[in-house]
Amino acid sequence: MQQKISILGCGWLGSALATELIRSGYEVAGSTTSLEKMSDLSEAGIKPFLMNISSIDSTIQNFLSAEILIVAITSKNIEHFVDLIECLEASEVQKVLFISSTSVYPNTNEVVRESTNTLLTPLVEIEQLFTSNPSFHSTILRFGGLFGYDRKPGNFVRSKKRIPNPEGYINFIHRDDCIAIIGEIIKQNAWDEIFNACSDSHPKRRDFYRKEARKIGLDSIEFDEDSKNEFKIVNSEKLKAHLGYSFKYSDLME
Description:
Blueprint: E1 4-8, H1 12-23, E2 27-32, H2 38-43, E3 47-50, H3 60-63, E4 68-71, H4 78-89, E5 95-101, E6 111-112, H5 122-131, E7 137-143, E8 145-147, H6 153-159, E9 172-174, H7 175-187, E10 194-197, H8 205-215, E11 233-234, H9 237-243
Parallel strand pairs: 1-2, 1-4, 2-3, 4-5, 5-7, 6-11, 7-10, 8-9
């Protein structure tokens, strides 16, 4: 019997992830808040659910009829997640992978690891709702800035008048690496963990955005030379060691 996985949030990352999981032999259900997107999910082989955790209804138990739930939505509403977890407690789900962000770490102008103290933010509280619940196993995956395919960092430059913190360092990860890492967590049963996930290289914002601007035809960009140049360098060595993982897009300046 195929292992069942449900993905809450089939957006830019979730849809591509679902397609790859199906290719790997899993049966995948996926949620969207857009009625128009339901047919797209169905055509991709994803069992579609129209769902928003701000107004959970009875269909959620069918959606949660899976061994694994991957949470890939951007909501940071704590009460909505409390409601979701209540449903999880009564469901078949045994394992939860919560997609979080390295934004939970303060800008220390140093290297940050999973053991580094986090900020007091709603996202951190939501992480703790999952990790403290004994009804299921949870792994928290903290991604850096996502890029790849139609999500080009150069377009961020186009929308900004001046780029802040030019002497700071970036923490990015390609979507292909995101999907491969999630696949390894599932395959290796790497539950009850917290992992950072960012490419190995951390170029200066000035160098990286100049390179990316050239890719989209921008000859010149402006930097805020008066900004404080606050940054953090996110260390992903725990993930690499635990999963034996090597990044596909390791050098962001290539």
